[in-house]
Specification:
Blueprint lengths: L12 E12 L2 E13 L5 E2 L2 H18 L5 H10 L4 H8 L5 H7 L6 H12 L3 H7 L15
Antiparallel strand pairs: 1-2, 2-3
Helix pairs in contact: 2-4
The structure holds zinc ion.
Length: 148
């Protein structure tokens, strides 16, 4: 909910939809279609808590898309496709505790390596079994030396 009168100048605040700037990791993104209250006199913007959360989530999604990274919701979908808790998914990927919750909230961006690993798992879900089976850690036999 927005105030009826602007706290800055006392002008009337009207409901509006438009593009608002939001800063993510030092980069300002222009997020379109944001519901907000706008002062008719000074242009002060008022956001409901819900709208502020959506604005942040959309700015994070846009910033990650521009960097070629999976969005928080895509990461959550991949994890859920394996029916794994955040902790179990961290174990599968080999990342530290609380890492996946931060990726899914958008507060921390995954690195390119983790991003590619998650894309591989999405494309080839059976690779999760390869990761958990331990077969990657069996040492390959060294080729025998030729006597020639
Ligand atoms: Zn105002």
């Amino acid at each position: 909910m927005y105030p009826k009168k602007c706290a800055a100048c006392g002008g009337p605040v009207a409901e509006s939809v438009g593009t608002l700037p939001f800063s993510v990791r030092g980069e300002t993104l222009e997020v379109p279609g944001v519901n907000h209250g706008a002062c008719g006199e000074c242009g002060e913007v008022y956001l409901s808590l819900d709208a502020a959360e959506r604005l942040q989530a959309e700015a994070v999604r846009m910033s990650k898309a521009a960097r070629g990274l999976l969005s928080p919701s895509e990461i959550r979908e991949i994890r859920r496709s394996f029916a794994m808790s955040q902790a179990a998914f961290e174990g599968l990927l080999g990342v530290g505790p609380k890492t996946v919750i931060r990726w899914e909230k958008g507060t921390v961006f995954q690195g390119a390596t983790a991003d590619r690993l998650m894309r591989l798992l999405r494309a080839q879900p059976e690779l999760a079994r390869v990761l958990t089976s331990g077969q990657l850690y069996v040492q390959a036999r060294a080729p025998e030396r030729s006597r020639a």
